[in-house]
Amino acid sequence: DDIVKYVIYYFKEIEDNNECCTIKDLDITGNDLLNAGFSGEKIGEALEKALDAVIEEKAPNKKTDLLTYLL
């Protein structure tokens, strides 16, 4: 099936390029955000925003860049 082949190719390319596709792949953690002054639900929201920024290439997946982007 062509769709299955495309999906497999797409995920292989993501893996080969070490691209960020989950919050766990981010170079920041909830503790980093807590230390930066975030609390409660705002931590999860900020991690989602950071992930979106990395995927959309609005910010590199580096701790200092992501904190700057979020603050």
Would you write up a description of this structure?
This protein has 71 residues and is mainly alpha-helical. The protein has helices at residues 2-16, 30-35, 41-55, 63-70. The mean pLDDT is 88.
Question: Helix and strand layout, with pairings?
Answer:
Layout: H1 2-16, H2 30-35, H3 41-55, H4 63-70
Radius of gyration: 14 Å
Report strand %: under 5%
Q: What is the helical fraction, as a range of percent?
A: 55-70%
Derived structural class: mainly alpha
Q: So how many helices?
A: 4
**Count the strands?**
0
Uncertain spans, ≥5 residues at pLDDT below 50?
Answer: none
Mean pLDDT: 88
Cα-to-Cα separation, first versus last residue: 45 Å
**Secondary-structure element sequence?**
HHHH
The coarse overall form would be elongated
Main pleated sheet: none
Which terms would index this structure?
single chain; 71 residues; mainly alpha
Give a short overview.
With 71 residues, the protein is mainly alpha-helical. It is 62% helix and 0% strand.
